[in-house]
Amino acid sequence: MLRRKALDKLKYWKENLAPHYAALLEGARRVGKSTIAEEFARENYRSYIKVDFANINTDLLSAFEDIANQDFFFLKLQTVTGTTRTPCSATCTNRTPRWEMPSTAS
Length: 106
What we know:
The chain is 42% helix and 6% strand. It is mainly alpha-helical.
């Protein structure tokens, strides 16, 4: 039940808040925050990049040195991770981000 509630809240965030606000999953260690985030990303986006700051390498960490230019930031993330961002479909609205791709942190 808690899993479903968390996924419902993330879906609400995506539909109503994502273009303007980040989602924060907080809770005790080892309760499934990363699992929920990854499941949500798999079910709701065509592509995503998982960033585990506990086990990050220097190449990936360097992508976070300058995030002022989001296009350049995501290009660096794609290059380092080998993941390609998938553009929104024609059904995107002005409330939907230009790119459907959340970064999830473990």
